[in-house]
Design brief:
mainly alpha, 198 residues, 72% helix, disordered N terminus, 10 helices
């Protein structure tokens, strides 16, 4: 009986544990703490990975690799800022490195040539709710990888062009150009989708 009581007390204390204490427990290799960290952040981090990935499977691969890195470096978390923010940075870095491995990082593309990349209307017939978050992620995944990376970093991760340039190893001008082109391409993609729905 006492063992069960102690175990439930540990679980209860994990739920109330501050970020730094949870990270420290993970650093010590406590499996309950590791599971708690995973459970707390897996859904949001999967959403982050989905925005950078070209498919759900790729997002799952990035998520798995990202959490391996989180647990491998959790001892470095110093409690400056939130644990979620720290985990998110690792996920974004993992996603970007994944794109680099696939040699899918930003390069300048001709907008006229991008017309050919717009999906065939037959592939969008299941988009019956154009404003749902899931459908927007699907559209985002149809962007060329370089556009997707810059758009995510600038709009959703709220990074400056200077930060994006450093992160991606491109010039500030290229970051600005990619963002501008990504917005135009995404708008065309969204317009085409909305035409099919209404």
């Amino acid at each position: 009986m006492k063992v069960k009581s102690d175990k439930s007390e540990i679980k209860s204390s994990l739920h109330e544990m501050p970020d730094a204490a949870l990270a420290a427990a993970c650093c010590r290799g406590e499996s309950e703490a590791e599971h708690r960290l995973w459970a707390m952040h897996k859904n949001r981090m999967y959403g982050v990975c989905l925005r950078f990935a070209a498919s759900k499977q790729e997002a799952q691969d990035i998520l798995q690799e990202g959490f391996l890195r989180v647990f491998g470096s959790v001892c470095k978390f110093r409690g400056e800022g939130s644990l979620e923010g720290w985990v998110r940075k690792i996920m974004v870095r993992t996603a970007l490195e994944h794109l680099q491995k696939r040699q899918a990082m930003p390069h300048l593309l001709d907008l006229d040539a991008l017309e050919n990349l717009l999906p065939d209307p037959q592939n969008l017939d299941d988009l019956d709710d154009p404003i749902s978050a899931g459908k927007l992620v699907e559209l985002l995944q149809k962007l060329p990888p370089g556009f997707r990376a810059v758009l995510n970093l600038y709009i959703l991760e709220e990074q400056s062009h200077e930060q994006i340039a450093r992160e991606l190893g491109i010039s500030i001008g290229t970051s600005k150009s990619q963002l501008h082109r990504a917005k135009i391409f995404f708008k065309k993609l969204l317009d085409k989708t909305l035409l099919l729905v209404f």
